[in-house]
From TrEMBL:
Keywords: Cytoplasm, Disulfide bond, Phosphoprotein
Entry GO CC: cytoplasm
Compartments where found: Cytoplasm
Domain annotation Ig-like: ranges: 93-175
Coarse class of the protein's main subcellular location: cytoplasm
Protein name in the entry: Ig-like domain-containing protein
Amino acid sequence: TRELFHFQPETKDLMPHCWSEVRIEPSWDFVKQHFLLEMGGEPLENGEKYQIKQRDGLLELSINNAVPEDSGIYSCVCRDQKTKATVKVVAVPASFKVPLKSQEAEEGKSVTLVCELSKSGVRVQWLRNGVALSEEENGCVQELLIRKSLPEDSGTYSCDCVHGDAKTTANVTITCERNELQDMRVTAGEDAVFVCELSHSDVSEGAWWLGSSPLQKNEMNQMTCHGRQHRLVLSMTTTEETGIVTFVVGDERTSARLLVVPKPKGW
């Protein structure tokens, strides 16, 4: 026999061929009786995965939808004659056909991030700001659902192939209404309460001002923070405290006017 082996990387099927000098009539029964096709010493059967065709003196084995696991030594045996060839299937790295898209949504709404890989069966990892969220293996389409979104969900999200360099990245921005300070009028001796709400709950440090003077936290100036809400209580106000109250965080600020009126006569 003469040996001929073709490897066509641009196709999904790899086809080792055997030529026989004996002309054979096209009969599968004849092939089964006189020829043995093996892979790694295991006989191959004609079917969906392996297609064995014979015409004239050519016996052809087609490996459909080749995967790396199909790599190995294939042999064709006819009586005391044997020919073999080595097949190596190199996996094509996955890539993202459809990348992630940046999104903006209002607080409380759901956000779905979607991307599509070039092939299925690829293990991916979802990350937010570089921190792993989940690792999974699905089909070509990958999805990450953020339910009842919060401002803290804002950030940079990425879907990375665990085995490979392919990745896609997008930004998610969750917006919410920011409650500003409100003007307040109180009578001297009463408490003045100022409340504002920020867009993010991870802000614990802020500064309260009265006019051009920063306020210090003490029994008379009570400052608290609960999530996104910041609260200032000025106890037992005096008319001298009339002015502009301001809360500052970074470059952001909100202000309101405090008016402390004298107590009515006879009070």
